């Protein structure tokens, strides 16, 4: 019997051993990058609760930042802004310019009122602004009460008790001749968005710019504290900037001094960022009466509401009170009866819609209804365009719109000029060609948006699946090596 004092010595590795090592190395080479992708992806995209916390901090533009100045936020997440009933959903990634980052870094929240609160009327600047109003011209109309569960949302009295002389739009639908509620040309469509800026705003701007469309954005001053960079981009890209107060309070529920503070502080922060002094204001909830109108007029503002029946109610999507298909159906119904739209003087007029640029849901809805309206002969454009106003800002030396705006009438005169034709068959579609060249622009645009979203989801899911599969195969290879 042969005995060994030690295990037999291997002069050279076996072929099987080499194959196992090579197999392991190959799996490691493939799996490591994918594993890193999965781990970093989880680390970069915070949870929804984390995103909420981040976005609630003053000056926070996104849930997290990645390399090269790219803002990344978790897809399909929903985040609530403090003090605002709307929900903000940010998705995808957007390139942020160095200039935009610098604008954001220069903002100092201490220079402005607390966001989402009615500003202090005892501030020295507010007192100065109040002193500039001729109060003898302001009607003596009582401050309206608020709903018990919603601060600064007007509570209407019984119909028979409404003061008709106050022309209170919120409670009796009254409008004055000075109020903007329609476009003079019945084929022009005033495209307006309230309550921004937000991360979702960039998505809407990209969509509009790709189609050479401009829109009016009614800006909330408190949101500018969080997204001054986005506001600056809106102005630079030629969109029309308008006023939507500081804290989104119903103006009839505020004292005279509070109204002045809401408007002037919002005016100041927007001018600090863009250099523009606005001319148009949309009172939150359309809440205006003759007292509010006169105060706004003395501060240089024109009151804008919207066309009756053309409020999309898109904000209700985020509140789960309505589904997008219902809104689209209502919009189609409004298109069917748009021949009934009349101006204050009774002439045929075009609609002004009310939309919001706060959520991914409202942006997706807007992308869907724009081509629907265009296929029916409407030309979407910013408010100043539909009003043929060549000077849409109070200080025209710093904001002549014709030098900065995208031309939404490519076949007509420059900004401020009258349309040469009201016949949609002769108009130029911003998508290219006449409006008759596109039999189904709504389906094409919608399919493109849906395809992009599906592609993003498929790519993300594919990478994650490959990463997990590679980790599993690596574990098997390691087990084979041990054996």
TrEMBL record:
PROSITE patterns according to UniProt: NODB (PS51677)
Region (Disordered): 398-452
Record-linked InterPro entries: Glyco_hydro/deAcase_b/a-brl, NODB_dom, Polysacc_deacetylase_ArnD
Compositionally biased intervals (Polar residues): 400-446
Keywords, in A-Z order: Hydrolase, Metal-binding
Family annotation (Pfam families): Polysacc_deac_1 (PF01522)
Entry GO MF terms: chitin deacetylase activity; metal ion binding
GO cellular component: membrane
Annotated GO biological process: carbohydrate metabolic process; fungal-type cell wall biogenesis
Domain NodB homology: 187-381
PANTHER family referenced in this protein's UniProt entry, alphabetically: CHITIN DEACETYLASE 1-RELATED (PTHR10587:SF133), GLYCOSYL TRANSFERASE-RELATED (PTHR10587)
The name this protein goes by in its record: Chitin deacetylase
Organism the protein comes from: Dissophora globulifera
Classification of source organism: Eukaryota, Fungi, Fungi incertae sedis, Mucoromycota, Mortierellomycotina
Gene: CDA2_15
